[in-house]
Amino acid sequence: MLLTPTHLQDLLLDPASHPRGQPHLSAASGLVRAGTWLYLVADDEHHLGLLPAGTAALPQAPLVQLHRILPGDLPAEPKARKKRKPDLEALALLPASPTHPSGALLALGSGSKPNRQRGLVIALDATGRPDGAAQVADLSALYAPLRAEFADLNLEGAFVANGVLHLLQRGNKGDARNACITYPLAPLQAWLAGTCAQPPAPLHSTLFDLGTVDGVPLGFTDGAAPPGGDGDGGWVFSAVAENTDDSYADGECVASAIGWVGADGVLQRMVALEGAPKVEGIALDGDKRLLMVTDADDPERASRLLAVSLLD
User: Fold this and answer.
1) 96 exposure class (CB count in 10 Å sphere: 0-12, 13-18, 19+)
2) pLDDT of residue 168 exceeding 70
3) DSSP letters of 183-210?
């Protein structure tokens, strides 16, 4: 059995709005739906991307709007940009809190290098739009226990469900372990807001074996749960088999899949995606449709917005 993605649009933008003059985003890595907007991060940008949530119903595919979340611009030369990029690989929607009455977005660096241990909290207004400058947080204290467990730390996904933040560690050929690490949300939000001196300890760390394709292990790239924590506590995830030995070097994507985890934290099933798109971010659009964004690891190629039906 295969899941067949539908191509909704390429992630195009006005070149005049992009710091390097690109007519597209090329490294989309996290996706969230918040109200009437889709938000995405690209791992080699200092901007958040915004799209209307109902893009499939519009007569013409809208351009991605850019919203700056980090100062300065990255180098145009690919190797220098890769070395300096913040590697924002995960994006989560935080519920309303005393600090952020209309909720906020949390963008997370992968932790794979010392300069990739930053988080950004982007407040949302009552309409779901970004409200003010992003708050930058040093995540090294949060990541330190994880680095002790995973020498090649590579956090690729994040989502909130039932008052808990889930972080997804991605395995590779060097260390094929995938993991879901959970944190109590309220203490974490208090720490990010500066009202608590230390980050909370993880509640659980659950390892997952996602199998291999042609000798290449599948690794988590993102996860999602029903909006508002509804449902039975289960969640869905995306995974890719990328032929690389570590979290820094890119490799060929030989397969991709969508999987389901039950409320008990046990892997229920996985289904391959036809065409093996390198899906890096996902968001549930209702109960039975999953939106996905891709990263082709090529600055000349636009990331794509895809959709797949989750109906049995």
Assistant:
1) exposed
2) yes
3) EEHHHHHHHHTTSSSSPPPPSEEEEE--
Q: Which pairs count as long-range contacts for 129-136, CB under 8 Å and 24+ apart, including other chains?
A: 129/37, 129/50, 130/48, 130/50, 130/67, 130/105, 131/102, 134/69, 134/70, 134/107, 135/192, 136/70
- Neighbouring CB atoms inside 10 A of 307's CB total 15
Judge contact between 156 and 222, C-beta under 8 A.
yes
| pLDDT tens sequence across 195-253 | 989 999 999 999 999 999 999 999 999 999 986 544 568 999 999 999 988 777 778 89
Element (H or E) spanning 118, and its range? strand 118-123
Looking up tokens 């909130």 gives: 160
Number of H helices, E strands in the chain: 3, 23
Radius of gyration of the chain (CA): 18
pLDDT of res. 58: 64
